[in-house]
Design a protein that fits this description.
It is built from five helices and four strands. The strands form two sheets. A two-stranded antiparallel sheet has the order 1-2. Strands 3-4 form a two-stranded antiparallel sheet. It is globular and about 40 Å long. The protein has 132 residues and is mainly α. Helices cover 55% and strands 6% of the residues.
């Protein structure tokens, strides 16, 4: 059984609260890229289950750090959330992520947080493969 971008495009586990009914194509591509371990371009059942566990973990983290219950994260909340996931990033990196992903009001949506978390996790995994 294989699943591609379209197979989980509308699988947002918290769509009502976050006022969205689907993940963006960029988020889907980031997730498939991170979890497609055999580089087939699609996810087999095991890869999908790993991705789903990651999404659930990211969703819980988002809820835990959305302290004002705004369904979005501020830069401060983003930094704290990523740190809780094992990514202690500098203010400069957080500022770049906010510039790239935040809305005009400076808030990070749930969809964008998943994208950020996937990219950061992928970078950390790649760095851990190399001993300097």
């Amino acid at each position: 059984m294989c699943l591609n971008y379209g197979a989980f495009f509308a699988a947002n586990p918290d769509h009502e609260k976050h006022n969205q009914t689907e993940y963006s194509l960029e988020t889907c591509r980031n997730l498939v890229s991170q979890f497609d371990l055999d580089t087939s371009g699609s996810l087999d059942l095991n890869e999908f289950m790993e991705m789903w566990r990651f999404i659930c973990h990211v969703q819980k983290t988002f809820r835990d750090f959305d302290v004002d219950d705004s369904a979005s994260l501020s830069a401060f909340e983003l930094k704290s959330a990523l740190k809780s996931m094992g990514a202690s990033l500098s203010r400069k990196i957080i500022a770049k992520l906010v510039r790239r992903y935040a809305s005009a009001s400076g808030e990070i949506s749930f969809n964008d947080f998943i994208s950020i978390a996937a990219k950061v996790a992928s970078c950390l995994a790649a760095c851990s493969e190399y001993k300097i």
